[in-house]
Design goal:
alpha/beta, Rossmann fold, eight-stranded mixed β-sheet, four-stranded mixed β-sheet, 12 strands
Length: about 230
């Protein structure tokens, strides 16, 4: 019998931006354990202390075992780091700078360990820069999700137009555009579920046609119970 497949979740929100906690609750519902181990990886923000505090404040009251993996002041040796990450049910990658994130991971060997963890059933999720790390189109991406990703599709000026243009010209491969408030779960690169914590928020598939015009397709999102 085969394993659960490589599972990746893209988040357009979570503990750092949303007060209702709906996306984080949805995320935990897909963990392989009823009391999951959840590791926050704040590398993209330079292990910002305030960001870490936000995570711990949000997840400590939940029915899970939260932890944090700092890399700028690394505390674990290679074997201990590998053992620690492989034991996690969920690895939650924070936002910040994507290039710095991937460079630091590569220097510490975290990229390969996360691939191995996903092969063993760990759910990898991320917001903003953290949503970019699983991608194949990035030179140092983890290769877990084909295509490109554009977070904050509806909330940052110029994001939508620049992403559509980049896909149309071939600068970026076709991919997923995530509006704020949306969560998307993929298994082995295929979309399994899309949800929203606010009605009207969407996940889009964006590609170019043979005339280099951008085609944008909104995908159905289940509105989470309790959404405003």
């Amino acid at each position: 019998m085969g394993g659960p497949g490589r599972r990746v979740a893209l988040l357009g929100g979570g503990f750092s931006t949303d007060e209702d906690g709906l996306l984080d609750d949805w995320l935990l519902s897909h963990a392989r354990s009823s009391r999951p181990k959840v590791c926050f990886v704040p590398t993209a923000s330079g292990d910002a202390p305030a960001y870490v505090d936000q995570f711990l404040s949000a997840f400590t009251p939940r029915d899970c075992e939260p932890s944090v993996l700092p890399l700028f002041r690394r505390q674990l040796g290679d074997e201990a780091l590998r053992t620690f990450l492989l034991s996690q049910d969920v690895v939650y990658v924070g936002g910040g700078n994507t290039a710095n994130l991937l460079a630091v991971w590569r220097a510490h060997g975290v990229d390969q360990v996360l691939r191995d963890a996903c092969d063993r059933g760990t759910l990898l999720c991320g917001i903003s820069a953290g949503a970019n790390c699983p991608l194949t189109f990035l030179q140092d991406g983890l290769g877990l999700l084909p295509g490109s990703v554009c977070p904050h599709y509806d909330s940052e000026p110029g994001r939508r137009s620049s992403y559509r243009e980049s896909v149309a010209t071939g600068m970026l491969s076709p991919g997923w555009a995530v509006e704020d408030g949306v969560g998307a779960l993929f298994v082995d690169g295929c979309l399994q579920e899309a949800v929203s914590r606010r009605p009207g928020a969407h996940l889009y598939w964006v590609q170019a046609d043979e005339d280099h015009a951008t085609l944008e397709r909104a995908l159905p999102c289940r509105v989470l119970a309790g959404a405003a």
